[in-house]
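Notebook entry, structure prediction.
Reason for the run: the old model in the group folder had no record of what sequence produced it. Starting over properly, with the input documented here first.
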Amino acid sequence: MRAFIAIGLEEEVKDCLEEAQKQAQTICKKGNYTPKENFHITLHFLGEIHTDDIEYLHMAMAETARFQRAFSLKLDRIGFFPRGREGVMWAGVEKSNDLFRLFHQLEKSLGKQGFGREKKGLSPHITLGREVEPYRGFQDVQKNVRLEQKTMRVESIMLMESVRMGRKLIYRPVVVQKLRENKKF
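New structure, fully documented this time:
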């Protein structure tokens, strides 16, 4: 199975991202836009794994959660990973020490279970579309698409399975691991 570990998003945040997508579609020639239900922030891409690995991944996620409290993230801006005239359009989040701490703890815990490190490191973003081709260039989209700077709670991490059904890609949660609660003293 093809898998990755991610942060899921609240419906309110997904609605905000979908609105930015709709704005972009009006100033882009074309694009393969991510369905709202697939919005997420990837922490670690695993690729093809065997079902026997799920138990070890769950142990790594549980260990990570023991060290990481729930925290907040804020949507930041629209960006692109350009590929010629087209590119991957994404929504970024503000820099967060909590997010980087979560990532590094996850990497450490996955390593203990025999999984390799994330090759690209952490580049926190939510993919809004692939093969997006703006009429006037990427800067035009960044200037004209308004992304509401919504704040979201990160309370869990998820092992996700990527399944192709016909031409549609569906991401299904396999394991959901809650992070530690923020206790008030």
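Summary: The chain is about 30% helix and 40% strand.
The old model has been moved to the deprecated folder.
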